[in-house]
Design brief:
367 residues; alpha/beta; seven-stranded parallel β-sheet; five-stranded parallel β-sheet; 12 strands; 15% strand; globular; D-isomer specific 2-hydroxyacid dehydrogenase NAD-binding domain-containing protein; NAD; D-isomer_DH_NAD-bd
Amino acid sequence: MGGGPNHVLCLLPLPATGDTAQAIERLKKRFPDVKVTYQSVAFSRDFEKQALEIPKGLWKDVTVLVTLFTMPPSTSDAPHLELVQLYSAGSNQVANNPIYKETDIPIATASGVHGPQIAEWVIMTYLVHSHKFKQLYELQKERKWGDKRDESGINKVRDGVGLRLGILGYGSIGRQVARVCKAMGMDVIAYTATPKDTPEKKKDHGFIVPGTGDADGSIPSAWYSGLDKKSLHNFLSQDIDILLVSVPLTDETRHFLSTEEFSVLSQGGKKPAFVTNIARGPIIDQAALIKALKDDTLAGAALDVTDPEPLPEDNELWELPNVTVTPHVSGAGQSYTDRVFQILELQLDRKAKGEPLINVVNRKRGY
């Protein structure tokens, strides 16, 4: 590999079997001169304790670390580290680690691997709401046929043609949701932190699963941007029927959506919108969300993330009839690990050739 990495250490909460084993073998065959070490770690939220359980000697010659959250306890533990490839689309779970805070070692995410499966989850949960599936399922459990259209509310179903989807955070996930919804006849508008006012800025420069997404950014009929309330409210006031929340969690986006935003989105309750959150729970003020769902300011919500996680058993969201809650699983799928290792192979290729890496976290932005 020339000047490329010589030791790839994979620390993931997965057994080295099945799809994972196949991905590792493919990596070894493609890069025979690279040492590859794989170690399964427990899935734990105590990141610091977990890091201490890794033998210090394992870090000493590592040049590329593939991880979800297990990082060297200090910069001196991994003196040859040149790249951290995360197994997740977000990087907030490692933001307090010394490698993140005290070095400029590139940290790259797995952004791009989640688009297809999360887009399907977004469509599935919206159709559960719009097509009154919960009501129909209850009728099925009761073995009732008859003329139940009024009882189920099926006569009020509206298809997607002509609806407007607002995507708050037009990354790889938002782009694939846009692609699918556009095919359903919806209009799509996009919102980003910084302006995308040229064709080059609208492009997706990260990892793209072939046949998916919006590589050139041509799908949205309009683009909006900014992190200030005025800009956000301008976007939310654009007659949106479905709002997809897919921005990263940063200090600027914590409680980005609250009572005032829900009111703007739904025109003071005159046109209740549907909110879908596949990003992070704290982006939404959850108490304000519950209130808006109960007083019909919002039509409904699909939540794969909550605040906190796991969602407590006594939380009202579990029981609200217009809400679907799932346990942070929308990005899971059989192809996940394979796609992460595709990104890793691409990174090793680029690194050996001296080319720019993809999906690198901008530490100032936090993603």
